[in-house]
Design goal:
Length: 187
């Protein structure tokens, strides 16, 4: 029984570390030589409502909306509890409301780990779909290069290299995420 209670908490912590890295990678994707990869994948770009000098990327997804900002990633469901990841807080939290959170203004609500993990699932499924598209369209060398660039940033906390990160995201989507360290040890 304790594993049932701790597994979502541990997985949320691991996913939050992965999202922090992922947001940096998305920042590089907008500068792809063949054009903004987020836009090419189907997201719409507009000025961010909360942070000056940044953009917001959004798309309809699973009856809700994915939104990516420089400091926030979220999935907002019309009739469901959504999720929000604020990079500065380093947590996946619950989001309720029909409108997506405004970075720097709105923050998520804490909740039990199982509820936060469940609310994260649409964003997780989108992330896997996007990273699979990146691998197929932009190639492994693109993602490896963005990961190396992310590792060189000051205060960078590298999570997993790209192939292992995608493997972890897929396992998480399928309900069986291991600790990232386990994947590194097997590699």
């Amino acid at each position: 029984m304790p594993d049932v209670l701790t597994k979502p908490t541990v997985s949320l912590s691991d996913a939050a570390r992965g999202l922090a890295q992922q947001m940096v990678l998305w920042g590089h994707d907008v500068k792809h030589p063949d054009g903004n990869a987020l836009v090419r994948f189907g997201l719409e770009r507009r000025k961010s409502a909360g942070l000056q000098g940044t953009s917001c990327y959004s798309a309809a997804w699973e009856g809700g909306r994915i939104e990516l900002h420089g400091a926030v990633a979220s999935w907002t469901g019309a009739d469901e509890v959504g999720c929000v990841f604020c990079r500065e807080r380093g947590r996946i939290e619950l989001w309720q409301g029909s409108q997506p959170p405004v970075p720097g203004v709105d923050f998520g609500k804490p909740g039990v780990a199982a509820a936060r993990w469940a609310a994260f699932q649409p964003l997780l499924r989108w992330l896997v779909a996007y990273e699979e598209w990146v691998a197929a369209t932009l190639g492994a060398s693109w993602r490896a290069g963005t990961w190396r660039a992310a590792k060189r940033l000051p205060r960078s906390k590298a999570w997993l290299p790209p192939a292992l990160a995608l493997k972890w995201w897929r396992l998480a989507r399928d309900g069986a995420p291991p600790r990232p360290k386990t994947l590194l040890e097997r590699h």
